[in-house]
Fold:
Amino acid sequence: MEKDLQLFISNSNAAEQTFKGKLRKLFLVDKMSNTTGLLILLLLSAGLGALIAYQGIIAGALIIVLMIGPPFVYAIVVFPQFGITVLLMLAYLLFFVGRLGIDFPLGTVMDGIQGLLILGFFIRQKRDPNWTMFKGPIGTMILIWILYNITEVANPVAESRLAWVYTIRAVAIVMLTYFVFMYQIRTVQQIRFLLKMWIGLSTFAALYAFKQEFIGFSAAEEAWLYSDPNIKELLFISGHWRKFSIFSDPVAFSYNMVVSSILCIALLSYVKERWKKVVLASLTVIMFTAMLFSGTRGAYVLLPAAMVLFVILKFNRQVLIGTAIAGVGILFLIMVPTTNSNIVRFQTAFKPNEDISFQARKNNQKRIQPYILSHPMGGGLGATGAWGQRFAPQSYLANFPPDSGYVRIAVELGWIGLAIFCLLMFFILREGINNYFFIRNPELKTYCMAMLLIVFAYNIGNYPQEALVQFPSNIYFYLAVAIINITRIIDDKEQARNAKLPARPEALLEAI
Structure:
């Protein structure tokens, strides 16, 4: 009986090894170039062709997803640098791809990529544990902010829990990418690559805005513009269309042009080669000019404001001369008589008391102040805007236009939430300033300064508009915050390697 059992197991293993051997020979050695492989490929192609013929383009798209999806998911989880690159590229191109007529839940894809990056982060923590990014003031405040947003589900005055469900996704998942960036970006080479990609994508967006301004919109863009009367009301002003380039709206476009211009200006202070200076200066002019096409007055003041901090941080003769020239140029644009609608709108941004829309926003904010003061936890996450109108259209806040990131936080999360958010921004700016003066490597110092200026500009821009809720600003903002700390970490490691410290007495005793 025992011999029979051993013989059975042996034969089974032999059969299994033979089957595995045949598969290995077919797919790895012969690479399906024999008769069996050709027959399999013929049957597979015939089956796929029949499926597409009977089910149409949906079946074809599903087949492509099944072929590309698993390797794509694997690559994002196992190779986080690839996943981060894909995330940052799609954040820029998300709405551009959507307007090409591709009917696909691209927002869900972005959430999925972020979720996969977070999953890869925790998987890698088992092999290379490092939880230090959670201990700093920025990491701690982000966790507190996320926790506070989660507790908003129990807000007793919230009109809709579904609005919270749809909104928390954009808050929690996006902010968790900060920890992914902190853990996965470890070298100056990675920072260089990401910043070059950032500038490249911004250049494409700026040039596309020039196309919209001087050539016109595409058929898909025109169809979108006329699909809703509210869109025309917002974007068609004084007989001229506000441009949005590849983004969701003119606000997102203009803010990205501003921060990309700031990035180029910061890098100008570091590069030594003449051709690099010419390229960066040219790109700054192109992006700033493209920003004017957006007609977003809230963005016009951001570059001068960031330049004030730039002069304070990097106070030298070259910077003073450069900023003085730029200041004269901006002053000329403000004062020059013109009939150009873009420049006229730029000029009104520096005369807010003459702006009707600015006065309307001030009145709205004054009207909502008693509500904010009487609701310390606000009216609930997602109570205003699109989600409020969808899930609680009868509520008081559903039709309130916040027109400001800070006002939205105060209305939805109360003055407690506003205080936490302001503390978070304070710690980010404080860390950025401290790190800038502690970092010794000139290249890392420049990158830290550039990200600090960008965060500063976003914070100012978050008052007249909602600067941190739309792609790609929401992703790139936390990338900038992460790089502020990453540059300090890399510099500390460099200084530790270069330092020639005397041997410790304990080490000398051990050597003896």
Notes: Strands lie at 236-237, 240-241. The chain is about 75% helix and 0% strand. The radius of gyration is 28 Å. The first helix runs from residue 2 to 29.
